[in-house]
Task: inverse folding
């Protein structure tokens, strides 16, 4: 009843009586115009989420670009009469990295010399050609495929970082389209490059562009929705990634040559060029940068699509405030109250003043997360969980591509199984809380991977089942980390904190290829590592406070107090801390 009354009061209050420039009570112009979610947001978010398809294709394509080479053997000296060449039955017992040359004296073999192989013959029964068979990435070059994937993940890391800065300065739409074009060109170019070194370079550029599409599309999606959808959107937004992961098997099954496969997953990016007309600029960015005419035009059309009547007087008031502020800044320049030599225009003055205000309001940077014990502990725990998510998700996904059995079925299962994990995680977060969801997801992944080591020999289906269960855990832990991090970090360092924490996931993904290929020494090494790390992450997550239905911290001080225990064992919330301080 109380909520209905408050909602009724809010509806009766005219929009234009609110002061959008009042620091104490800011009006959400975008939310007022569009609502939390409507047909316009649905179209934009669906289009943006489809970008996760090529993200999955390119991030996980290494599974089919560089699958385990299977049977291969040294081809040096095959036509040499003085070379021992084994029969097909003994191929698995020869030294694949060296060829054995037998000396002949008086018709009898009495000496052996060993030389490193320079060329190999591969089993092409499943794949017509891979990057391993084309460029001989075996023996002393066996880590080259891992380097290719590690450099790819590094490119994504840099793309996320640099495109994030570019999109803040030049808007969301133009950097997004630039990333799509680069992704298309680099992806198609990778399919034709004749040198492995060039392949590495183009894959890096492809990853850089992919990181750009990931960052900018996610930001636009979050900036156009509101209310409950701002929590649900980051989870639902990732669903096409699972579909893309699963569909990789279909691409590879149809195109058995790696060049044809690479071309097939790159050409769909041509269709994404239509986003120049389908995806609008972020209205929040337009407002933040003072482009009020463009924002008004965009919001008016979007509100009409959503069937909402929008009173644009709020934006008119903002334009008037903005104009008065610029006039005041121009007068400051004329009076010499600012260093006119360092300032070229009133727009620069506006930017400098806003920057100074932001610095005053920010109250902290990412280093503040490590200065106090409680906040430092929470930061380290959440960062470790991010590291495990990157390590476990991409590691297990690549591990499933190396399992015995049908590689196409294994990869299709590993992609499809993520969908219930992602949806289940959204339900669990809202009903069980963030901490239980994260802990149980990590435990599921860790225990499943350790059970792989207990699977009886010959029961490959059981290994695939345990691996799939581990991937479900990781697909649930990943989106939980996104939301949990944003709620744990104080407002003044929230963006920096989430950015630093998510960077740990990229570090984990850089390491994953090397751990996965440790199966050449023993098949149980990768699952043991992928099992222990999530179990430890789940245990550490129990140290974190629950954030659901809690007043979230705004300042560094509140962040330090959030989750601390009373003498009776109950957690202190920021609201209680403020109340206690007031009583004192």
Result:
């Amino acid at each position: 009843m109380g909520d209905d009354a408050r909602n009724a009061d809010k509806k009766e209050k005219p929009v234009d009586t609110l002061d959008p420039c009042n620091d104490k009570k800011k009006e959400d112009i975008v939310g007022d115009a569009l609502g939390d979610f409507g047909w316009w947001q649905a179209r934009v978010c669906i289009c943006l989420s489809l970008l996760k398809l090529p993200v999955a294709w390119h991030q996980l394509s290494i599974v089919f670009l560089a699958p385990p080479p299977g049977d291969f053997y040294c081809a040096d000296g095959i036509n040499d009469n003085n070379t021992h060449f084994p029969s097909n039955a003994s191929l698995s017992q020869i030294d694949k990295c060296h060829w054995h040359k037998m000396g002949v004296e008086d018709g009898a073999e009495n000496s052996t010399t060993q030389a490193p192989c320079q060329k190999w013959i591969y089993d092409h029964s499943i794949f017509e050609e891979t990057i391993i068979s084309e460029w001989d990435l075996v023996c002393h070059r066996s880590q080259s495929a891992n380097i290719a994937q590690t450099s790819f993940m590094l490119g994504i890391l840099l793309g996320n970082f640099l495109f994030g800065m570019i999109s803040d300065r030049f808007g969301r739409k133009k950097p997004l389209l630039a990333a799509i074009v680069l992704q298309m060109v680099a992806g198609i170019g990778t399919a034709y490059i004749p040198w492995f070194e060039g392949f590495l370079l183009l894959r890096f550029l492809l990853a850089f562009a992919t990181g750009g599409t990931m960052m900018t599309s996610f930001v636009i999606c979050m900036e156009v929705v509101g209310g409950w959808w701002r929590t649900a959107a980051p989870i639902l937004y990732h669903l096409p990634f699972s579909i893309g992961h699963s569909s990789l098997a279909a691409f590879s099954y149809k195109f058995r040559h790696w060049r044809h496969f690479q071309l097939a997953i790159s050409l769909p990016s041509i269709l994404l060029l239509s986003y120049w007309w389908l995806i609008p600029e972020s209205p929040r960015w337009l407002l933040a940068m003072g482009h009020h005419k463009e924002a008004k035009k965009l919001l008016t059309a979007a509100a009409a699509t959503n069937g909402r009547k929008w009173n644009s007087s709020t934006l008119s008031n903002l334009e008037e405030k903005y104009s008065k502020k610029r006039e005041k800044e121009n007068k400051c320049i004329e009076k010499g109250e600012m260093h006119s030599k360092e300032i070229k225009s009133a727009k620069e003055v506006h930017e400098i003043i806003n920057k100074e205000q932001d610095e005053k309001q920010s109250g902290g940077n990412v280093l503040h997360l490590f200065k106090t014990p409680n906040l430092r502990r929470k930061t380290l725990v959440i960062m470790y969980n991010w590291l495990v998510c990157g390590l476990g998700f991409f590691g297990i996904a690549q591990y499933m591509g190396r399992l015995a059995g049908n590689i196409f079925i294994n990869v299709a299962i590993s992609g499809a199984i993520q969908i219930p994990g992602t949806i289940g995680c959204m339900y669990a977060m809202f009903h069980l809380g963030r901490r239980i969801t994260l802990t149980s997801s990590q435990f599921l992944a860790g225990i499943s991977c350790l059970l792989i080591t207990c699977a009886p020999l010959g029961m490959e289906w059981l290994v695939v089942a345990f691996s799939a269960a581990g991937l479900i855990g990781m697909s649930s832990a990943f989106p939980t980390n996104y939301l949990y991090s944003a709620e744990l970090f104080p407002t003044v360092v929230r963006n920096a904190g989430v950015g630093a924490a998510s960077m740990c996931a990229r570090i984990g993904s850089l390491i994953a290829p090397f751990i996965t290929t440790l199966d050449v020494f023993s098949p149980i090494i990768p699952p043991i590592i992928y099992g222990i790390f999530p179990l430890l992450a789940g245990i550490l997550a129990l140290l974190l406070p629950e954030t659901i239905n809690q007043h979230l911290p705004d300042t560094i001080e509140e962040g330090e107090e959030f989750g601390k225990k009373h003498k009776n064992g109950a957690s202190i919330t920021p609201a209680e801390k403020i109340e206690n301080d007031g009583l004192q």
In short: The radius of gyration is 28 Å. DSSP finds 26 helices and four strands in the chain.
